[in-house]
Design a protein that fits this description.
The chain has 375 residues and is of the alpha/beta class. Helix content is 43%, strand content 14%.
Length: 375
């Protein structure tokens, strides 16, 4: 067997180090918090030796896929080493300081512990909760500031590698529009959050118009801060709704900046029919009720141009990853994810087909399942 090149060895070492750090944090923090405030209702993940082997095998396969896509030019290889270390260093103490609040919220089952300053009528009811027992839900600058690090810890350092799995099907889907000027090809990232996916999209599609849409002001502000260090990028935050489009003459042709950040609900996208060529959506659907998932898919279909591509990434499901059922069960029992149990049984492929999508494909990578479909 050929030895790994030095860059690949460095990549693997980095990824393994992140995994060890994530596991260590979860083990140490759980022990400390159980000493301070024991929680008998907390369900432990039963990681027997066979399951641990499956996890390791799946993570190794994910890393191999990640490395190969970079080597094959799907995205710049620098993304494989792009870690916001300074950002994480400043976030990590806040994660620890917030842990007693999160732990207590879980024990008392306080799922609606949200800032009193928010305008509740601006958000759907399913959104007004502390997903993951997160302080302030998705509705404060504090929550937005520590989210990326929390996700990296949750996935043992594999979050970025899993996010990058959307880039290859997006690139393949957008090949339909290869004869157009790239700045006339628009890509929307739904539930863009704090901007981690946006930055990877920009690196992979440097000349396309990229829009990020989210329901949280705080997370959009965090995304703006995060991506504003990219040379030449202009950040503009727009609040939008379906009745009042944020573009002159209701046209996306009015967009002249590299990035556009828009506050809106994915149930009612503020775009004209057939106006976008690509849409990505990462880790949203498991936090939506079943009826809302279908409504969002119908909205995506409406705004995509015929031939446009949708790439959706979310949690694995029971039908594609039965070996990880115990992990999925532990996730919705230990975290406040009220729609997750339904999501892992939901037939997304059939929903897409009934709505009108074609060429529907799906594949799982460790804890993430990726769908691609064409309008």
């Amino acid at each position: 067997m050929a030895r790994d090149s030095i860059p690949k060895f460095a990549y693997k070492t980095l990824q393994q180090g992140k995994s060890i750090a994530g596991l260590a944090h979860k083990e140490i923090s759980s022990r400390i918090m159980n000493l301070i405030s024991p929680d008998s209702d907390l369900n432990n993940f039963n990681l027997d030796s066979n399951l641990l082997q499956e996890i390791q095998k799946s993570m190794d396969s994910l890393r191999e896929e990640d490395w190969n896509d970079g080597e094959n030019g799907i995205y710049p290889t620098r993304l494989l080493f792009d870690e916001p270390w300074l950002r994480y260093i400043t976030q990590y103490p806040k994660v620890w300081l917030d842990m007693p609040n999160t732990w207590e919220r879980r024990k008392k089952q306080k799922y609606n512990d949200l800032p009193k300053t928010i305008e509740r009528e601006d958000y759907p009811n399913y959104y007004l909760r502390n997903f993951h027992h997160q302080t302030d839900g998705y509705l404060s600058d504090f929550s937005a500031s520590i989210y990326d690090l929390q996700v990296e810890i949750l996935f043992n350092g594999t979050a970025d590698s899993m996010r990058r799995r959307i880039l290859k099907p997006l690139k393949e889907g957008l090949s339909t529009f290869h004869e157009r000027k790239t700045n006339n090809v628009k890509l929307l990232d739904i539930a863009t959050g704090s901007g981690r996916t946006l930055k990877q999209l920009r690196a992979s599609f440097p000349k396309n118009k990229i829009l990020g849409l989210d329901l949280s002001d705080s997370y959009l502000k965090e995304a703006s801060r995060y991506i504003s260090d990219l040379e030449g990028d202009l950040i503009e935050l727009i609040k939008a709704n379906a009745e009042s489009l944020p573009f002159e003459d209701n046209s996306l042709q009015a967009i002249s900046c590299v990035y556009q950040l828009i506050k809106a609900n994915a149930e009612s996208l503020p775009f004209e029919d057939n106006s976008l060529q690509a849409i990505s959506c990462v880790y949203l659907f498991h936090e939506l009720p079943r009826t809302v998932r279908e409504k969002v898919l119908r909205e995506i279909f409406r705004v995509l141009e015929p031939g446009g591509v949708l790439v959706l990434a979310d949690s694995i499901q029971i039908n594609d990853s039965p070996k990880f059922i115990s992990i999925m069960e532990g996730f919705y029992k230990n975290f406040h994810e009220p729609f997750y149990c339904d999501y892992i049984k939901d037939d997304i492929d059939t929903k897409m087909s009934e709505i009108g999508f074609n060429n529907i494909n799906s594949k799982s990578f460790f804890m993430t399942k990726v769908w691609s479909a064409i309008k």
